[in-house]
Amino acid sequence: MILAIDIGGTTTKLGLVENGQVVVRDRINTNGHADEHAFADAIAEHARKLITATGTKLTSIGIGAPNANQHTGIIEMAPNLPWKHDVPLANMMATRMGATAVLGNDANAAALGEWRYGAGKGYNDLMVVTLGTGVGGGFIVNGKLVLGSAGNAGELGHTTLVMDGRPCTCGRAGCLETYVSIRGIRQTYLDLGGDSDIIRTEGVKPIADAALAGDRAAQFTFQWTADWLAVGLANAVAITGPGRIVLFGGIVRSGRLLMDPLQARFKKVLLNIYQGRVDIVSSGLPEDDSALLGAAALGGTGDH
Ligand SMILES: [Zn+2]
Protein backbone atom coordinates (compact mmCIF):
# COMPACT_ATOMS: atom_id res chain seq x y z
CA MET A 1 0.00 0.00 0.00
CA ILE A 2 1.39 3.39 -0.98
CA LEU A 3 0.70 6.49 1.09
CA ALA A 4 -0.08 9.27 -1.39
CA ILE A 5 0.01 12.91 -0.32
CA ASP A 6 -0.97 15.87 -2.48
CA ILE A 7 -0.12 19.26 -1.06
CA GLY A 8 -2.14 22.18 -2.37
CA GLY A 9 -2.27 25.83 -1.39
CA THR A 10 -5.31 25.36 0.87
CA THR A 11 -5.91 21.61 1.22
CA THR A 12 -3.61 18.64 1.60
CA LYS A 13 -5.12 15.33 0.50
CA LEU A 14 -3.84 11.97 1.58
CA GLY A 15 -4.86 8.44 0.74
CA LEU A 16 -3.75 4.85 0.58
CA VAL A 17 -3.37 3.52 -2.95
CA GLU A 18 -3.26 -0.06 -4.13
CA ASN A 19 -3.25 -1.25 -7.76
CA GLY A 20 -4.19 2.17 -9.07
CA GLN A 21 -7.15 2.60 -6.70
CA VAL A 22 -7.46 5.03 -3.84
CA VAL A 23 -8.67 2.70 -1.10
CA VAL A 24 -9.16 5.25 1.70
CA ARG A 25 -8.64 8.99 1.82
CA ASP A 26 -8.56 11.98 4.14
CA ARG A 27 -7.70 15.66 3.99
CA ILE A 28 -6.28 18.36 6.23
CA ASN A 29 -5.80 22.09 5.91
CA THR A 30 -2.41 23.11 4.57
CA ASN A 31 -2.53 26.35 6.56
CA GLY A 32 -2.97 26.94 10.26
CA HIS A 33 -0.15 24.74 11.59
CA ALA A 34 2.49 26.21 13.92
CA ASP A 35 5.29 25.30 11.51
CA GLU A 36 6.22 22.69 8.91
CA HIS A 37 7.00 20.13 11.63
CA ALA A 38 3.51 20.45 13.08
CA PHE A 39 2.14 20.10 9.54
CA ALA A 40 4.14 16.89 8.97
CA ASP A 41 2.97 15.59 12.37
CA ALA A 42 -0.65 16.22 11.37
CA ILE A 43 -0.24 14.35 8.06
CA ALA A 44 1.43 11.44 9.88
CA GLU A 45 -1.33 11.26 12.47
CA HIS A 46 -4.05 11.13 9.82
CA ALA A 47 -2.06 8.63 7.74
CA ARG A 48 -1.65 6.29 10.73
CA LYS A 49 -5.40 6.32 11.23
CA LEU A 50 -5.92 5.26 7.60
CA ILE A 51 -3.32 2.51 7.92
CA THR A 52 -4.91 1.20 11.12
CA ALA A 53 -8.38 1.33 9.58
CA THR A 54 -7.31 -0.77 6.59
CA GLY A 55 -5.01 -3.07 8.55
CA THR A 56 -2.34 -2.95 5.84
CA LYS A 57 1.38 -2.40 5.67
CA LEU A 58 2.90 0.74 4.20
CA THR A 59 5.40 0.11 1.39
CA SER A 60 6.34 3.64 0.37
CA ILE A 61 5.26 7.26 0.32
CA GLY A 62 4.73 9.59 -2.64
CA ILE A 63 4.24 13.32 -2.21
CA GLY A 64 3.26 15.84 -4.88
CA ALA A 65 3.78 19.51 -4.05
CA PRO A 66 4.38 22.81 -5.80
CA ASN A 67 8.03 23.88 -6.17
CA ALA A 68 9.31 20.44 -5.19
CA ASN A 69 12.79 19.32 -6.16
CA GLN A 70 12.64 15.59 -6.78
CA HIS A 71 16.44 15.21 -6.58
CA THR A 72 16.65 16.60 -3.04
CA GLY A 73 13.16 15.91 -1.64
CA ILE A 74 12.84 19.56 -0.70
CA ILE A 75 9.98 22.02 -1.30
CA GLU A 76 11.85 25.13 -2.33
CA MET A 77 10.31 28.44 -1.26
CA ALA A 78 6.87 27.74 -2.70
CA PRO A 79 5.02 31.07 -3.11
CA ASN A 80 1.59 29.48 -2.55
CA LEU A 81 2.47 27.51 0.60
CA PRO A 82 2.70 28.85 4.17
CA TRP A 83 6.48 28.24 4.49
CA LYS A 84 8.70 30.67 2.69
CA HIS A 85 11.87 28.64 3.27
CA ASP A 86 13.09 25.22 2.11
CA VAL A 87 11.15 22.30 3.61
CA PRO A 88 12.80 18.82 3.37
CA LEU A 89 9.42 17.11 3.43
CA ALA A 90 10.50 13.75 1.91
CA ASN A 91 12.85 13.15 4.86
CA MET A 92 10.38 14.50 7.38
CA MET A 93 7.66 12.07 6.26
CA ALA A 94 10.04 9.11 5.85
CA THR A 95 11.22 9.54 9.46
CA ARG A 96 7.70 9.83 10.82
CA MET A 97 6.25 6.91 8.86
CA GLY A 98 9.23 4.55 8.68
CA ALA A 99 9.05 4.13 4.89
CA THR A 100 10.90 5.59 1.92
CA ALA A 101 9.40 8.80 0.56
CA VAL A 102 9.65 10.46 -2.84
CA LEU A 103 8.69 14.11 -3.20
CA GLY A 104 8.07 15.59 -6.62
CA ASN A 105 6.65 18.57 -8.41
CA ASP A 106 2.83 18.26 -8.59
CA ALA A 107 2.69 18.57 -12.39
CA ASN A 108 5.32 15.86 -12.73
CA ALA A 109 3.36 13.69 -10.31
CA ALA A 110 0.26 14.19 -12.47
CA ALA A 111 2.28 13.09 -15.50
CA LEU A 112 3.41 9.92 -13.72
CA GLY A 113 -0.18 9.22 -12.63
CA GLU A 114 -1.47 9.48 -16.21
CA TRP A 115 1.42 7.36 -17.41
CA ARG A 116 1.00 4.59 -14.92
CA TYR A 117 -2.76 4.52 -14.36
CA GLY A 118 -4.47 6.78 -16.91
CA ALA A 119 -4.68 7.81 -20.56
CA GLY A 120 -0.89 7.70 -21.00
CA LYS A 121 -0.53 4.01 -20.21
CA GLY A 122 1.78 2.24 -22.65
CA TYR A 123 3.36 5.41 -24.09
CA ASN A 124 7.14 5.63 -23.83
CA ASP A 125 7.01 9.28 -24.86
CA LEU A 126 4.25 11.28 -23.28
CA MET A 127 3.45 14.86 -22.44
CA VAL A 128 0.95 15.70 -19.69
CA VAL A 129 -0.31 19.25 -19.37
CA THR A 130 -2.31 20.45 -16.38
CA LEU A 131 -4.64 23.35 -17.14
CA GLY A 132 -5.95 25.05 -14.03
CA THR A 133 -5.04 28.04 -11.88
CA GLY A 134 -1.62 27.63 -13.45
CA VAL A 135 -0.34 25.56 -16.34
CA GLY A 136 2.05 22.73 -15.57
CA GLY A 137 3.80 20.17 -17.69
CA GLY A 138 5.32 16.75 -17.20
CA PHE A 139 7.36 15.03 -19.89
CA ILE A 140 8.07 11.32 -20.18
CA VAL A 141 10.88 10.79 -22.68
CA ASN A 142 12.34 7.41 -23.64
CA GLY A 143 10.35 5.84 -20.81
CA LYS A 144 11.56 8.22 -18.11
CA LEU A 145 10.18 11.31 -16.43
CA VAL A 146 12.36 14.29 -17.32
CA LEU A 147 13.57 15.95 -14.10
CA GLY A 148 16.36 18.17 -15.37
CA SER A 149 19.29 19.55 -13.42
CA ALA A 150 17.12 21.26 -10.81
CA GLY A 151 14.67 18.36 -10.36
CA ASN A 152 11.68 20.29 -11.66
CA ALA A 153 11.78 20.29 -15.47
CA GLY A 154 8.65 20.71 -17.58
CA GLU A 155 7.50 24.25 -16.77
CA LEU A 156 5.54 24.50 -19.99
CA GLY A 157 3.28 27.19 -18.51
CA HIS A 158 6.21 29.57 -18.28
CA THR A 159 7.43 29.24 -21.83
CA THR A 160 7.00 32.57 -23.61
CA LEU A 161 4.12 32.61 -26.06
CA VAL A 162 3.90 36.36 -26.73
CA MET A 163 6.88 38.73 -26.56
CA ASP A 164 6.10 41.49 -24.03
CA GLY A 165 2.67 39.93 -23.52
CA ARG A 166 0.51 39.70 -20.41
CA PRO A 167 2.31 40.00 -17.06
CA CYS A 168 2.89 36.64 -15.34
CA THR A 169 3.09 35.67 -11.66
CA CYS A 170 6.68 34.55 -12.34
CA GLY A 171 7.67 38.19 -12.89
CA ARG A 172 8.08 37.83 -16.65
CA ALA A 173 5.61 38.54 -19.44
CA GLY A 174 3.78 36.66 -22.17
CA CYS A 175 3.99 33.18 -20.61
CA LEU A 176 1.65 30.52 -22.03
CA GLU A 177 0.04 30.37 -18.57
CA THR A 178 -1.16 33.97 -18.80
CA TYR A 179 -3.31 32.97 -21.82
CA VAL A 180 -4.53 29.43 -21.19
CA SER A 181 -4.94 29.23 -17.39
CA ILE A 182 -8.26 29.95 -15.67
CA ARG A 183 -7.16 33.53 -15.05
CA GLY A 184 -5.92 33.85 -18.63
CA ILE A 185 -9.20 32.67 -20.11
CA ARG A 186 -11.17 35.09 -17.95
CA GLN A 187 -8.85 37.91 -19.04
CA THR A 188 -9.35 36.99 -22.70
CA TYR A 189 -13.12 37.10 -22.24
CA LEU A 190 -12.88 40.62 -20.83
CA ASP A 191 -10.43 41.70 -23.55
CA LEU A 192 -12.94 40.51 -26.15
CA GLY A 193 -15.64 42.72 -24.63
CA GLY A 194 -17.28 39.99 -22.55
CA ASP A 195 -19.91 40.70 -19.91
CA SER A 196 -18.17 41.35 -16.57
CA ASP A 197 -21.31 40.22 -14.72
CA ILE A 198 -20.82 36.72 -16.08
CA ILE A 199 -17.38 36.28 -14.57
CA ARG A 200 -18.51 37.27 -11.08
CA THR A 201 -18.74 33.49 -10.65
CA GLU A 202 -15.33 31.85 -10.31
CA GLY A 203 -13.65 29.63 -12.84
CA VAL A 204 -14.20 29.02 -16.53
CA LYS A 205 -17.63 27.39 -16.33
CA PRO A 206 -19.64 30.65 -16.52
CA ILE A 207 -17.83 31.51 -19.76
CA ALA A 208 -18.46 28.00 -21.10
CA ASP A 209 -22.15 28.31 -20.23
CA ALA A 210 -22.29 31.73 -21.93
CA ALA A 211 -20.63 30.31 -25.06
CA LEU A 212 -23.19 27.52 -25.25
CA ALA A 213 -25.96 30.12 -24.84
CA GLY A 214 -24.67 32.03 -27.87
CA ASP A 215 -22.42 34.72 -26.27
CA ARG A 216 -20.02 35.62 -29.11
CA ALA A 217 -17.25 36.94 -26.84
CA ALA A 218 -17.36 33.68 -24.91
CA GLN A 219 -17.25 31.62 -28.11
CA PHE A 220 -14.25 33.59 -29.38
CA THR A 221 -12.60 33.17 -25.98
CA PHE A 222 -12.53 29.40 -26.44
CA GLN A 223 -11.35 29.75 -30.03
CA TRP A 224 -8.46 32.03 -29.01
CA THR A 225 -7.57 29.88 -26.01
CA ALA A 226 -7.48 26.81 -28.23
CA ASP A 227 -5.28 28.61 -30.76
CA TRP A 228 -2.77 29.70 -28.10
CA LEU A 229 -2.72 26.29 -26.47
CA ALA A 230 -2.26 24.57 -29.84
CA VAL A 231 0.82 26.68 -30.55
CA GLY A 232 2.27 25.99 -27.09
CA LEU A 233 1.69 22.26 -27.45
CA ALA A 234 3.04 22.07 -31.01
CA ASN A 235 6.20 23.90 -29.90
CA ALA A 236 6.69 21.42 -27.08
CA VAL A 237 6.07 18.44 -29.39
CA ALA A 238 8.98 19.61 -31.53
CA ILE A 239 11.31 19.22 -28.53
CA THR A 240 10.43 15.84 -27.03
CA GLY A 241 8.34 14.16 -29.77
CA PRO A 242 5.62 12.58 -27.61
CA GLY A 243 3.24 9.99 -29.05
CA ARG A 244 0.40 11.39 -26.95
CA ILE A 245 -0.53 14.56 -25.08
CA VAL A 246 -2.85 14.20 -22.10
CA LEU A 247 -4.70 17.30 -20.90
CA PHE A 248 -5.68 17.40 -17.29
CA GLY A 249 -7.38 19.88 -14.94
CA GLY A 250 -10.42 22.07 -14.49
CA ILE A 251 -10.40 23.75 -17.90
CA VAL A 252 -10.61 20.40 -19.70
CA ARG A 253 -14.13 20.08 -18.27
CA SER A 254 -15.21 22.63 -20.90
CA GLY A 255 -15.12 19.59 -23.20
CA ARG A 256 -15.68 20.09 -26.91
CA LEU A 257 -15.80 23.89 -26.58
CA LEU A 258 -12.04 23.73 -26.11
CA MET A 259 -11.12 20.36 -27.59
CA ASP A 260 -12.68 20.78 -31.06
CA PRO A 261 -10.94 24.06 -31.97
CA LEU A 262 -7.78 22.82 -30.23
CA GLN A 263 -7.58 19.65 -32.35
CA ALA A 264 -8.20 21.66 -35.53
CA ARG A 265 -5.59 24.30 -34.80
CA PHE A 266 -3.06 21.78 -33.50
CA LYS A 267 -3.22 19.94 -36.83
CA LYS A 268 -2.53 23.21 -38.66
CA VAL A 269 0.46 24.30 -36.56
CA LEU A 270 2.14 20.93 -35.97
CA LEU A 271 5.37 20.31 -37.85
CA ASN A 272 4.69 17.90 -40.71
CA ILE A 273 7.05 15.14 -39.48
CA TYR A 274 4.84 14.74 -36.38
CA GLN A 275 1.52 14.67 -38.25
CA GLY A 276 -0.42 11.51 -37.44
CA ARG A 277 2.11 10.51 -34.78
CA VAL A 278 0.74 12.40 -31.78
CA ASP A 279 -2.77 12.81 -30.48
CA ILE A 280 -4.36 14.97 -27.79
CA VAL A 281 -6.74 13.36 -25.30
CA SER A 282 -8.19 14.38 -21.96
CA SER A 283 -7.27 12.71 -18.69
CA GLY A 284 -8.46 9.16 -18.12
CA LEU A 285 -8.35 9.35 -14.33
CA PRO A 286 -11.25 9.96 -11.93
CA GLU A 287 -11.02 13.66 -11.24
CA ASP A 288 -11.16 13.54 -7.46
CA ASP A 289 -8.39 10.96 -7.25
CA SER A 290 -6.01 12.05 -9.99
CA ALA A 291 -3.67 14.08 -7.75
CA LEU A 292 -3.44 11.23 -5.24
CA LEU A 293 -2.82 8.68 -7.99
CA GLY A 294 -0.07 10.92 -9.29
CA ALA A 295 1.55 11.11 -5.88
CA ALA A 296 1.20 7.33 -5.56
CA ALA A 297 2.92 6.84 -8.91
CA LEU A 298 5.75 8.99 -7.60
CA GLY A 299 6.08 6.83 -4.52
CA GLY A 300 5.69 3.58 -6.47
CA THR A 301 8.49 1.15 -7.11
CA GLY A 302 9.19 2.29 -10.66
CA ASP A 303 7.96 -0.98 -12.15
CA HIS A 304 5.97 0.82 -14.85
ZN1 LIG B 1 5.50 32.97 -16.20
Properties at a glance:
304 residues, alpha/beta, Nucleotidyltransferase, domain 5, 2 domains, 5-stranded mixed sheet, 9 helices, 12 strands, globular, binds zinc ion
Give a quick precis of the structure.
The chain has 304 residues and is α/β, with parallel strands linked by helices.
Bound molecules: zinc ion
Number of domains: 2
Q: What is the level 1 CATH name of the largest domain?
A: Alpha Beta
Largest sheet, spatial ordering of strands = 3-2-1-4-7
What value does the average pLDDT take? 93
Computed Rg: 19 Å
CATH architecture of the largest domain: 2-Layer Sandwich
Q: In percent, how helical is the residue content?
A: 25-40%
Tell me the strand percentage band: 15-25%
CATH topology of the largest domain: Nucleotidyltransferase, domain 5
Strand pairing plus helix content: what structural class?
Answer: alpha/beta
Helix segment count? Answer: 9
H/E element sequence: EEEHEEEHEHEEEHHHHEHEH
Question: How would you portray this structure in words?
Answer:
The chain is α/β, with parallel strands linked by helices and 304 residues long. The protein has 2 domains: 2-110 and 289-299, Nucleotidyltransferase, domain 5, CATH 3.30.420; 122-284, ATPase, nucleotide binding domain (Nucleotidyltransferase, domain 5, 2-Layer Sandwich). The chain is 37% helix and 21% strand. The chain has 9 helices and 12 strands. The strands form 3 sheets. It has a 5-stranded mixed β-sheet, sandwiched between helices. Strands 10-9-8-11-12 form a 5-stranded mixed β-sheet, sandwiched between helices. A two-stranded antiparallel sheet has the order 5-6. α3 (106-117) packs across α9 and α6 (205-212) packs across α7. The longest helix has 25 residues, at 216-240. It is globular. The protein starts with a strand and ends in a 5-residue tail after the last helix. It binds zinc ion. Zinc ion binds at residues 158, 168, 170, 172, 175, 177.
